[in-house]
Amino acid sequence: MIVELISTGTELLLGQISNTNAVWLAQQLNAMGYDVLYQTTVGDNRERMQAVFRNAMDRADVIITSGGLGPTQGDITKEVSAALLGRSLALHPPSLERIEQYFSTRKMPMPPNNIRQAMISTDAIVLDNERGTAPGVILEHGAKTIVHLPGPPRELEWMFSQQVGPYLIRRYGSQGVILSRVLRMYGLGESSVEEKLHDLVKHQISPTIALLAKAAEIHVRLTAKGSSEIQAKAVIATVENEIRQRLGHQIFGVDDENLEMATGEALAARQLTVALAESCTGGLVTSRLTDLPGSSAYVIGAIVCYSNDIKEHMVGVPSEMLADHGAVSGETAECMARNIRQKFGSHIGVGITGIAGPGGATAGKPVGLVYIGIDGPLGCRLFRFNFSGERQFIKQRTSQAALFELRRYALEIH
Are 336 and 373 in contact (CB under 8 A)? Predict the structure, then answer.
């Protein structure tokens, strides 16, 4: 079954609120096997909204709207759909009674305009709203269905889970399941990943393969449809195994597993501890690691050594090294990693120094130059990067690189 999601409200077009309803609904519908092929956002304008509804009726089996069921003159969703289908609105006494009860239990007077919410299209299926005042509406038109849901996420999610989902199963039967699995990787660009997976992408049937560049990572999304979750997972597994063989350690996690989670798991599984000396990242790597519960098992401590004085007197970088090579140098990063490891008695030490910008650059050391040193049982390793972009982006990219290399270092320790 083809589904179109229509989000109504000028506030969405103005960017005043995020459209979380469309994300949530798409996730639920895909889990039920429905193909969400279109998503449309339209403001509170009758002509434009009617045009959107008309297009949706032409190309989708199920149209689900969110928003526009409130008590104000701008809430026109029900009126537009009724006019499109040649139906009229009439007072629905049970809905009015529920709205009056809603205000009564809260000892609040009901504004007269809330009666608008009880005006329902003739022959509609009314959806009770136990979390608000606006009832939902289901309109059947031949083989097609229009579902109107309220805009507040708390109301919409309850109404869909309790009433709309079961209704769709009763009306259209089981649609199987659409399952996606996202492989997350770092260290390769989108074009490089595409080159390594070129034949798989070119000849994809099921699962489908999509490459996404996102937040200094590359995501490979595998999507399959099956009669059951087990069948869909089996379809995905074959291609996933092939991708893992080609991309190897570049893949650090799946789905919602971020790099700090993957790094923490690698450290915890090997009972390794880490200490960090951070300069240009200002403690960002330590912050990301310690965002996770249980991180005290592997994070011993850290020093934000922004100034040369702190590098020298708290981390032990010799003044001669700072004078000869500079604070942003491979020598300094390695020294920071070795000394912080010794100072805190950890298995691994990480030293990070660089130029986040926009100032501080020299002819030989541009903005974005970063050195990361990692010291531990496998010896000291040094990594040099030349990132580009604004200050916050450079800091984020540096933290990604540090976590990725720390994880890779930990995985080699047996």
Answer: yes
Calculate helix-pair angle for 259-269, 391-411, nearest 10 degrees.
Answer: 30
How many CB atoms are located within 10 Å of the residue 40 CB?
Answer: 17
**How far, in Å, CA of 86 to CA of 73, rounded?**
21
Instruction: Please say if the pLDDT value at position 110 is more than 80.
Output: yes
Q: pLDDT of 173-191, one tens digit each?
A: 989 999 999 999 999 899 9
Instruction: Please compute Rg for the chain using Cα positions.
Output: 28
DSSP 89-149: EEE-HHHHHHHHHHHHHTT-PPPGGGGGGGEEETTPEEEP-TTSSPPEEEEEETTEEEEEE
* Region of residue 33 (phi > 0: left; psi between -120 and 50: alpha; otherwise: beta): left
Q: How far apart are CA 133 and CA 111, in angstroms?
A: 12
Cα gap 44→54, rounded to integer Å: 16
40: amino acid identity, one letter: T
Residue 257 carries which DSSP code? -
Beta bridge partners of 141: 144
Closest CA to 120 of 130, 129, 131: 129
